[in-house]
Amino acid sequence: MDEKQRSILLDSSSRFPPPPGVKLSYGTAGFRADASILQSTVFRVGILAALRSLKTQSVIGLMITASHNKVSDNGVKIADPSGGMLTQAWEPFADALANVPNFLHLVQLVDDFVMKENIPLEGVQSAVILLGRDTRPSGESLLEAAKQGISSIVGAVAVDMGVLTTPQLHWMVRSRNKGMKAAEMDYFNQLSSSFRCLIDLIPPGSAVNVMDKLIVDGANGVGGEKLQVLKKVLHGLDIQIRNSGKEGVLNEEVGADYVQKEKAVPRGFAPADAGMSVAHFQLSSISQCFRCASLDGDADRLVYFSAIPNSNNRIRLVDGDKILSLFALFIKEQLSILNDNEGDRENNSYPATLGVVQTAYANGASTDYLKHLGLEVVFTPTGVKYLHEKAAEYDIGIYFEANGHGTILLSEGLLHWLDGRSSEPSLTSKGSEQQKAALRLLAVSKLINQAVGDALSGLLLVEAILQHMGWSIHRWNELYHDLPSRQLKVKVVDRSAVVTANAETVVVRPLGIQEAINAETAKYPRGRCFVRPSGTEDVVRVYAEASTEEAADNLANSVAQLVDQFLGFGSS
User: Fold this and answer.
1) pLDDT tens figures, 366-377
2) Is residue 294 flagged as an active site residue?
3) Per the residue annotation, which of 12, 53, 67, 306 is the catalytic one?
4) DSSP tag of 570
5) pTM score above 0.85
């Protein structure tokens, strides 16, 4: 780098010293920590975003959020040109940049990386970075640190998009790089118009109960705020929003993470919360009349639930596995219609590949159900980046985690074929079922956020499919019954001693432990168990499921004892 660039970088980085004794690691969620120690990290990620934009000659996104974490936390992550997560190849540089001890070493690190990656500096090219933040009080000052980092690279421009959901920012980056409209209202209009298209294509005779209300828990975060805006351009759906952020604390006993883990009605729904109760309905009424959904703090996760009457706020959870199953069922139906060649003299079917991608944490009952439908189900290691990458190998790839994070990817080749199929004269003149199926899948491609999991777009797709099927939430929840499961953590001396294979379902080191796990698992009907090392601490995570709660608990406990014997502090 030239002296001008070096001088700017030295001056700006000297104003953002790293907190002593703090070491951060860039993962699926980017960097996350208590907001009070993140100024330096966010500044440095601003530098990284500018370099990434110069390297790719594309628009890059920088989002300040800590998703479902408590309100005092915050975080920062990068959206790559595709709208997806930062490429894994740059994660080691992100770690090194965040943890470099002083500004002199920082400038040297950047200089070395720029030379290695052949990144043009000195303002030869411009760089554009879109910035977004959620509703956390710390977001504004951290956004300013990000701007300072970006502006310390000559030619880099920060564009503040304001308060957004994380998926909105990813969508904007993807759209900008595709040369499409990418303002916030463009996002809302695309969601509402594609939802309307799916509703208009519902077959006659579907038993749609238009009186049903959808009650949404906004986690007291940005999702509730944005759903209020979406409601204004949406027709055909009666939504009531609880925990919109006007009162209440972000993610405190609210939100998708709380609902999924605690299996309890969030605050703002309980009858005791008179001022925030569900319009004076008792929980028994809610469970009979309404569907309830819950977003997480930055609206990239979605789960549904209904309350169980007289059960002290317990719920029937409809998690990410069930959302995946609903989407897979609907898409399989549309592909079957499209590939029905009866009466189609030209045989214009498209051999579309459809794949469902899960991790080992998906409930075994969901996997069995999907395979029973005749779908190809594949597993990846835990982490959205692995799921997304695998889903992209199919013409239609669907992935979800049980926590409610997931999406659908559709290939450009399939979309091009669907465009042609939907406008074929032989089909359009008849308004055929094949044309409608093509139009439905095109609408899905516009409604779903293909960049990243998006609770708002996912919510609308769920609602459109339920209306298409004529299903209540209870009918949906009866697709299959989850096997009881249990998760435990075991402290170990060194988590790196555990090496897994087959998407983390088999332990290859230490020798002998997998055989012992297999022998224990075989004792229980429908037993399944795996262990994997944590990515952040010296613990090994145990997952077990079986036909009964007692069996799942016993299996988890017995395998936890095996892990302790092989790897615990007594093992050495």
Assistant:
1) 999 999 999 999
2) no
3) 67
4) T
5) yes
